[in-house]
Amino acid sequence: MSHIDVEAHRKDQTLETLNDLLKGELSAVESYDRALPAVEDKPALRSDLQECRASHELRVERIRRAILDVGGEPAHASGAWGLFAKAVAGGARALGWRTVISTLEEGEEHGLKDYGDAMSRLDERLRKVVSTELYPEQQHTASMMSALRRGSSV
Question: Tens digit of pLDDT for each residue in 29-46?
Fold first, then answer.
């Protein structure tokens, strides 16, 4: 492979990795949007879910900027985020808030794995963005869902 081919391959791999992360974040935002109706009568819990949703929305914007900086086209559609999309098809309210929180926690744990896996496929600059900006936020939202599932707060 020529130097140009290697560079093109790296760019393609970087864009694919970033778009995979973006799809996961878009799915997370959608999942929180679907979950919020299940906690309308629980203001503190609703506030926690809104905080997590906002964190994912900020990550969507950060990843979009990174993709554009690399010269790529950000994905517009979300990916699958665990079982949540299927589970809420019948309505989040019907599931009950405990099931919703457990399912969101599962999605957050999946997100942690996705960020961990992405690190080795990114160049040093983007690895730093993930490790210092995105992954810590993912850890925070995962911790919040875990604490909520256990019945405590962060």
Answer: 988 988 888 888 999 999
Between CA 67 and CA 83, with CA 104 as vertex, the angle to 5 degrees is 85
In contact, 27 and 135? CB cutoff 8 Å: no
Higher pLDDT, 88 or 60: 60
Mean pLDDT across the chain, nearest whole number? Answer: 87
Please check whether residue 138 is in contact with residue 107, taking contact to mean a CB–CB distance below 8 angstroms: no
The CATH number given to whatever domain includes residue 106 is: 1.20.1260.10
Domain extent at residue 47? 3-150
Length of the chain: 154
Could you tell me the pTM of the whole model?
0.88
Residue bearing tokens 């914007």: 61
Number of domains in the chain: 1
